[in-house]
Automatic annotation (TrEMBL):
Single GO cellular component term: cytoplasm
Binding site for Mn(2+) 2: H105, D138, D201
Name this polypeptide is given: CNDP dipeptidase
Cofactor binding notes: Binds 2 manganese ions per subunit.
Cofactor requirements of the protein: Mn(2+)
């Protein structure tokens, strides 16, 4: 099928007309503090699943199910902590139509005003044509986008061109715990007729050109716990007399990665697939610059100066980031304490052909060796908290073509085909368990500040994003079924 514009203008007009309602829907979603990484906020994550069930019910979805995933596995503070449920729903069940499964997540990263936000993070605040709030771009905006598409069709009295299944999870930001098993279980049940999977949960590379994404890095997240004294101690009384856990931890963490971003754990780079000549040439055609990277990071701290080097280091090579130290003094003022127990957190973004299990072995053995060399009387436990695989696909299929046409129709330009430096742990599982293609169709821009302070979604991205998601369903519905 070549690109012939479908008559979608009434849909676009309806989406424009419903803009205030769509902003209100996102505002309600953002106000729920569904932070999966904070155990104390788990009831809010569950509240967010109930919010979605209510929305789906009002929009006429059928067979809505909340799938319980049981108890969260260790390491966790509360051994009874339950995982938030998976929300499933179906819109349409016509055997003559194709079935699209859309996945998104309703949990968010932590946020507090004290981190430096200009507005309250859990309040959607509009400043000109920008909506600020935690989850606005990652991933509540896109999740609301799918609901908005259904609302627009209902109000137009239009049939949806495909059957739509939704799968929304509440643990994506914390490793998608429990979802792999559920997908395996439902592959031949709830998901049995799925033709393709579409995920809107990443971002454009820059700020002006839409993209379609065919690759993700994986993420293995680790912690190093070091235990020493029986309690936090006065540094005047015990300093110099006891081995301090923080000193050991800092020594170890400082030997994981260097200041140029090079991972120092032996063996990691040996597993990385070499960059081929053909692949090298792909980077030349992508629209991006070091200036855009600096603008998005709000600094001039880029480690690489050419577009090709930046993109390879974002998409193609592994990276190791140090995230924090639990138990360390972090407030203002000057507290003279020796922390008794500290837990260092870091993650490695993985790429083809890194073997996740082999990586864990290299990481844990290296840390234990560094600790042994310290001859410290303290004790150490280094472990994996969660992992998620990298994913790279071939973007020459009906789903990507439909997204290409939809993007051209709405944005009047051809999108770039990109990979993503972030991770969506469940992507490969969908591809393998359902045996279908997966498409990543992002809504937000590269400077949206996902995971950062002042996360935002530009209203044109939200509204045109809804049009793009809706158009994608129409273009995809026109392809002949492969079944
Ligand atoms: C790209 C996606 N919106 C996202 O932010 N994913 C997270 C997933 C993750 C993996 N481990 C912890 N969170 C990310 O890339 O950090
Ligand atoms: Zn996300
Ligand atoms: Zn995220």
């Amino acid at each position: 099928m070549s690109f012939n514009k479908l008559p979608l203008e009434p849909l676009y007009e309806k989406i424009e007309e419903l803009k205030p309602k769509f902003i209100e829907r996102l505002s309600k979603a953002v106000s729920i503090k569904s932070v999966s990484g904070d155990e104390s906020l788990r009831p809010n994550v569950v509240e967010m699943s109930a919010f979605l069930v209510n929305e789906l019910t009002n929009l006429g979805f059928e067979d809505i199910q909340l799938k319980d995933l049981g108890i969260q596995p260790p390491p966790v503070n509360d051994p009874e902590l339950r995982l938030p449920p998976i929300v499933l729903g179906r819109y349409g069940n016509d055997s003559k139509k194709k079935t699209v499964l859309v996945y998104g997540h309703y949990d968010v990263q932590p946020a507090s005003k004290e981190d430096g936000w200009s507005t309250e993070p859990f309040e959607l605040v509009q400043v000109e044509d920008i909506l600020y709030g935690r989850g606005s771009t990652d991933d509540k905006g896109p999740v609301m986008g799918w609901l908005n598409v259904i609302q627009a069709h209902r109000e137009l009295g239009w049939e949806l061109p495909v059957n739509l299944l939704v799968c929304f999870e509440g643990m994506e930001e914390s490793g998608s715990l429990g979802l792999d098993d559920l997908i395996a279980k439902e592959a031949k049940n709830y998901f049995k007729n799925v033709d393709t999977v579409c995920i809107s949960d990443n971002y454009w590379l820059g700020t002006t050109k839409p993209v379609l994404t065919y690759g993700l890095r994986g993420c293995n997240y680790y912690q190093i716990a070091i235990n020493g004294p029986g309690a936090d101690l006065h540094s005047g009384v015990f300093g110099g007399c006891v081995a301090e856990p923080m000193t050991d931890l800092i020594k170890i963490m400082s030997q994981l990665v260097d200041g140029k971003g090079k991972i120092l754990i032996p063996g990691v780079y040996d597993m990385v697939a070499p960059v081929t000549e053909e692949e090298n040439s792909l980077y030349d055609d992508i629209d991006f610059s070091v200036e855009e990277l600096n603008a998005a990071s709000g600094s001039n701290t880029a480690l690489h100066q050419t577009k090709q080097d930046i993109l390879k280091h974002r998409w193609r090579f592994p990276s190791l980031s140090l995230h924090g130290i639990e138990g360390a003094f972090s407030g203002g003022g000057a507290k003279t304490v020796i922390p008794a127990k500290v837990i260092g957190k870091f993650s490695i973004r993985t790429v083809p052909d890194i073997d996740s299990g082999k990586l864990d072995e290299l990481v844990i053995n290296y840390i234990n060796k560094l600790f042994k060399d310290l001859s410290s009387p303290n004790t150490i436990k280094a472990e994996l908290i969660h992992d998620g695989n990298y994913w790279v696909s071939n973007p020459f299929n009906d789903s990507f073509t439909a997204a290409l046409y939809a993007t051209q129709h709405v944005w009047n330009m051809k999108p770039d085909f990109t990979r993503e430096g972030g991770s969506i742990p469940i992507t490969l599982t969908f591809e393998q368990q359902l045996g279908t293609d997966v498409l990543l169709l992002p809504m937000g821009r590269g400077d949206d500040g996902a995971h950062s302070i002042n996360e935002k979604l530009n209203i044109p991205n939200y509204i045109n994003g809804c049009k793009t998601l809706g158009s994608y369903l129409h273009y995809y519905g026109k392809f002949e079924s492969n079944k």
